[in-house]
Specification:
Helix 5 (205-233) packs across helix 10, helix 18 packs across helix 19 (563-582) and helix 23 (675-684) packs across helix 24. Strands 15, 16, 17, 18, 19, 20, 21, 22 and 23 form a nine-stranded mixed β-sheet that branches. An eight-stranded mixed β-sheet has the order 7-14-13-9-10-11-12-8. The protein is built from 26 helices and 23 strands. Bound molecules: phosphoenolpyruvate (PEP) and magnesium ion (MG).
């Protein structure tokens, strides 16, 4: 048991090693030492299914990275195919044995191999061998199986290249950043890294503070210049991302924080790192994936400030003819601005998610992007790449035939884009005349323009958390009035659904830390707001004041699970209205509705109908709570699916209840932009959908291409099925049959 504990620690320590090769080598050495065997080796599955010797202690080290077993061959191939341990007393005598001459493994008789499995797929095989012909014991097998489980956690997501050398085709998986296909050559954006800056004593505090103020002004001017240059050449949506940078640059938290850190004795770059890192980590710890992704904006901006301070020259692509694929740990907005827009074909980020601003920008620019690939080994400036943003993968060194296939796909995509541009001002009406309203989800002021540019009929979900996150204290009523007024003014005459603060749990505010063992089930949403009614009163007053004289404002309540919460909110709203009327403001009572996110709300909807003006399904949280699956936990992310039959049954139930009670119904989770799910939702009677702006044109195209009758028939059939895969197949086949298959690669 002690040995196991020791090895578990070694695996965890190895996980800290920078390079995967080092991690694997450390683990193999440790197993070799602890088990007292003659050989311990790790084989890793290559993209083509062959098993490549990735590390060994005991076989000829020159074979590492070269010796490879074709798919299914040898005892190692058998382990991978059966997904079971294989234990053999005399390996060379076994019919499946396949001798790899360069390893000299025929000296070793006893063999035990166990699969390394992640998310259901075999990613490697861990093997121990010894000279004596003996069957390894049950304990030894159990020991290896346990280690293989640990190994699965640290091995890279990127399959290793097969033994054919570094210029062979290789596929690297990431996550979808922006749809589309980009074909070009890599350009590495190896910008400076602020996070690597050490602390140093500050020689002259006053001079450093002066220098900091000038730096802020200079970078703010640079950002403005970059914004203008891109705004002229490209879409309107691009400018919005720059506004987010300006907002951060103007934030007193950043300005004063750095001044304070300098005053406490750190030199300027150290002080900058300290403050940027502090705020970035606050964002990173947030539960909401949108807000979580904002930590990258801060890191980008920090790097930009540091680069300007160090006087390092701008890093512009050169020496490459033709289309460029920007590649980097974090490709920043400035990297994108420095690239000739006519030649920018794709973006690959080693880290980040589909919610990063790099992805938001790529969407606005219509450039394919793949995020979170992990470090791309062997990719240098000029290496040919294909960025497949539809699937979330990167092809390194594509062969001529693969390249031709992607060029064909690119051609088809361009044809589709041309068709969609014309839909901007047309209504989303099915071919049998059913009108669906399509709205945009936003969180930052900066996200307003993309919605308008894509024809949003309003804002279906405005996440008010943002002004609270970027402040040093709770924003004042005036600050909030200012922010909300801008949102409402941009959508004058169209509905804006503002959600009250959905904070709490592990979405901490810097000035209001909350620590809980089970944050998803804790003090969040309406529970937090009602317990802090002074804050809620300020927010509601600000919303009402910003909305005075118009009819845009609708108020959305998050995480509602009992009647008392709705009653308490209405009482507070009455109070706010009375106060403002007394102050002489022409306020009106806005429609109030709830997010259906907690399953308990569904059963209570009939009883609540008279207290509510509308209902919006938050399918992200509803799926999470119905399936008891954390939507942000990569270990279970594969099982999280809003097309799960239980989720669909509940949505159909909500649709029936709202129809019977006359409550207007909309849906504002990710499901609203999944084409297969949209077919189902249309069939259940949902008539309003809200999604990220870039998804609007495709969903509009889908809705304008089908009949509601067909959708209702499919919904009926989907509700008879008991597994997600069968339902997805049914709905996707229907899209293919109607010539809408092109939407599926690019949801
Ligand atoms: C949801 O839960 O579906 C939703 C839209 O809210 P959020 O993603 O902000 O939790
Ligand atoms: Mg939610």
């Amino acid at each position: 048991m002690n040995a196991l504990l020791q090895l578990t620690r070694i695996v965890q320590a190895a996980a800290q090693a920078e390079e995967t090769d080092d991690q694997v080598r450390l683990i193999v050495e440790a197993i070799h030492r602890s088990m007292g065997v003659e050989v311990c080796s790790l084989y890793i599955a290559a993209a083509d299914g062959s098993m490549l010797l990735a590390a060994t202690e005991g076989l000829d080290p020159r074979a590492v990275g070269h010796s490879s077993l074709p798919p299914g061959r040898g005892l190692v191939g058998r382990v991978a195919q059966t997904r079971h341990p294989v234990v053999v007393a005399d390996a060379p005598a076994h019919p499946d044995f396949c001798y790899l001459a360069e390893t000299h493994e025929d000296e070793f008789r006893s063999f035990c191999g166990v699969p390394v499995v992640r998310a259901g797929a075999v990613i490697g095989v861990l093997v121990v061998q010894s000279r004596e012909p003996r069957l390894m014991s049950e304990e030894e097998q159990a020991f290896l199986v346990t280690l293989a489980t640990q190994l699965a956690l640290v091995l890279p997501t990127e399959p290793l290249a097969s033994a054919g050398g570094s210029n062979t085709l290789r596929r690297v998986r990431g996550v979808k950043g922006a749809p589309g296909t980009g074909i070009g050559q890599a350009w590495l954006c190896d910008t400076v890294d602020l996070y690597a800056v050490p602390d140093r004593p500050c020689e002259d505090v006053e001079a450093a503070i002066d220098e900091w103020r000038q730096l802020l002004a200079q970078v703010s001017a640079d950002v403005e210049t970059e914004r203008r240059s891109m705004e002229q050449e490209l879409s309107e949506g691009v400018a919005a991302v720059f506004s987010a940078y300006q907002m951060l640059l103007n934030d007193p938290g950043l300005r004063l924080g750095v001044e304070q850190a300098i005053a406490q004795g750190n030199w300027l770059p150290g002080a900058l790192r300290q403050v940027v890192h502090h705020y970035a980590e606050l964002f990173r710890a947030m539960e909401d994936p949108y807000l979580k992704a904002r930590h990258e904006d801060l890191h980008h901006l920090g790097n930009k400030l540091y680069q300007a301070w160090s006087g390092a020259p701008e890093h512009r692509p050169q020496g490459i003819d033709g289309p460029i694929i920007l590649v980097g740990d974090k490709v920043s907005v400035s990297d994108i601005a420095a690239c000739d827009p006519q030649r920018l074909a794709g973006i690959v980020c080693f880290s980040g998610s589909s919610l990063s601003h790099t992805a938001v920008l790529a969407n606005a620019l219509g450039v394919a992007a793949v995020m979170g690939t992990g470090k791309l080994k062997g990719v240098d400036n000029g290496v040919p790449l294909i960025v497949d943003g539809n699937v979330g993968q990167v092809i390194v060194h594509p062969s001529a035939s693969v390249r031709r296939e992607f060029e064909r796909l690119q051609y088809a995509e361009q044809a589709l884009k041309g068709e969609l541009a014309g839909l901007r001002d047309l209504p989303a009406t099915t071919t049998d005349g059913v009108r669906i309203r399509l709205l945009a989800n936003t969180g930052l002021l900066a996200d307003i323009s993309p919605g308008l540019a894509n024809g949003a009929e309003g804002i279906g979900l405005y996440r008010t958390e943002m002004p609270f996150m970027i402040s040093d204290t709770f924003p004042s009523e005036e600050d909030q009035v200012n922010t909300y007024s801008q949102v409402l003014a941009a959508y004058r005459g169209r509905p804006v659904y503002m959600r009250i603060l959905d904070i709490g749990g592990d979405k901490p505010l810097p000035y209001f830390p909350i620590h809980e063992d089970n944050p998803a089930l804790g003090w969040r949403g309406i529970r937090f707001c009602l317990d802090n009614s002074a804050l809620l009163m300020t927010q509601v007053r600000a919303m009402l004041r910003a909305a005075a004289g118009g009819e845009e404002l609708h108020i959305l309540l998050p995480m509602i699970s009992n009647t008392g919460e709705i009653v308490a909110f209405h009482a507070l709203l009455d109070d706010a209205l009375a106060q403002l009327t007394e102050e002489g403001l022409p306020v009106r009572r806005p429609p109030v509705g709830i997010m259906v996110e907690v399953p308990a709300a569904i059963s209570l909807l009939p009883a609540w109908a008279k207290r509510l003006d509308f209902v919006s399904i938050g399918s992200n949280d509803l799926s999470q709570y119905l399936l008891a699956l954390d939507r942000n936990n990569p270990r279970v992310a594969g099982a999280y699916d809003h097309i799960h039959p239980a989720v669909l049954q509940e949505i159909a139930r909500i649709a029936r209840i709202t129809r019977e009670t006359g409550l207007p119904l909309s849906l504002c989770g990710e499901m609203a932009s999944d084409p297969a799910a949209v077919l189902f939702l249309l069939g259940t009677g949902v008539r309003q959908l809200s999604m990220s702006a870039s998804k609007l044109p495709r969903i509009k195209w889908l809705l304008r291409s089908i009949t509601e009758t067909e959708a209702a028939d499919l919904t009926g059939r989907a509700l008879q099925l008991d597994n997600s895969q069968a339902i997805r197949t049914l709905l996707e086949n229907a899209l293919h049959e109607r010539g809408l298959g092109r939407l599926l690669g690019s949801e």
